[in-house]
What we know:
This protein has 24 helices and 9 strands.
Amino acid sequence: MASEEGVPVELYIYDLTNGLASLLSPAIIGRQIEGxxxxxxxxxxxxxxxxxxxxxxxxxxxxxxxxxxxxxxxGTTFVPFQVFVDYIQGLATTTYTPSLYRLLEHNCNHFxxxxxxxxxxxxxxxxxxxxxxxxxxxxxxxxxxxxxxxxVPDADQAVxxxxxxxxxxxxxxxxxxxxxxxxxxxxxAELEARRSSLAEKLARKERRRERRRRRHAGPDDEMAExxxxxxxxxxxxxxxxxxxxxxxxxxxxxxxxxRRRARDPPIIFRxxxxxxxxxxxxxxxxxxxxxxxxxxxxxxxxxYLVQGEGSWVLGDDFLSFIGRLLAGGGARAVAALRCVxxxxxxxxxxxxxxxxxxxxxxxxxxxxxDTRPLDEQLATGLFMCNLFENTSSSEWLLYISEWExxxxxxxxxxxxxxxxxxxxxxxxxxxxxxxxxxxYNVATKEVxxxxxxxxxxxxxxxxxxxxxxxxxxxxxxxxxxxxxRLAQHSPDVPQLIAMVGPEPAAYRGTSPRVDEQIDxxxxxxx
Length: 526
């Protein structure tokens, strides 16, 4: 299934009316529309879409809609299959749950847009995304919402895996596979299969490390190597032992995430109060004439931060409004950043963050952090630290898919790394405190991505530079704890610690918790 050329990504475009919209629309809405569009993304030989039942996968073209009206090639992805599985499961359990479905502002086409951006940086045609608001009268909207709920079999004809609904009828063997998975979770005989799977995974990881030791590879080579190693193990989501192992690995990762949070709770700045920060923003905007859209976005922010409404109240123009405030700089930008820093601790902020995959308002601003005034830098760092309150929002900071800003190819993880290093090495004590917190949060996240080895090296060098300046105990502990975790991620980190220095043992005796991290590091540094 996988090759160095990548995996094709296609957009299936369906006309929900099967041609009737073109014939009847002049009489119903006074103008002609070609169709009422529903889209799905097809990749790894499965079709993924979103509706009132949540995120669903099935064999391509096997829903009740039949064959697609049009198939559009979006591009090619090099995202490892297991990374994609984790991503889809994350969407299905956070921002694309059944309860969050909205026909106008959060529908199948928005889901396809987001997945296409993640896989290959492609877009769903704009006229499709904008159609519900523009072309569909309320009675037709209700009818279409009901139709979308029936695109896959009823509950007794579907199985679920980490929030994703999978069609049985479209893929008979899929039921057998999921039965095996469920049996594996409760039957002692399957525990041996899990141990074998984990052993193979560790062996595969060690083989990749060994190859990296023998040669210096660029980012493109490492991406190809990761795809080659990961995709065959997933067997393209087809039934079989490797797909079963992938599901078991997902269970292991979920359990490990819970253990990690208990062992290494993130460093969060909890003194940022949403009500107070909104009042500061309102005061900063006093005397300014806001457009109707801007006033609406401000009202939406009040509903979210002050009145406690869900993030669904934040409309499509909200991030554009925040982007304009940030671009203006000064007190307005600081107040806006502190508002989103307060919002970052909300468990539903992921819905807003995923909207930013279209605008990149937040991270485009953050990428130019070194050109911003100190108070704006500090507010940006606080926002990023607080995103580690919840798993879904912290993972957003570490996405690897690329996007363009000012002619540069960026990614969330690279922007996050830049902000972390800049704050960490700042001469300002308050900003340095935020930087060490962000370093600790990123390192203890234990993220697995195809570019994280590069990030490990960059963060390691910054942490060593900080330690060379004899920081206070809290900052020394954060830096050493980060180095201990980074040394587990990348074989290059222990070598850098040994070659660059300072010696971790130089901090021994500072505190018991510092000594504990030194011992962990020295286990890796030979």
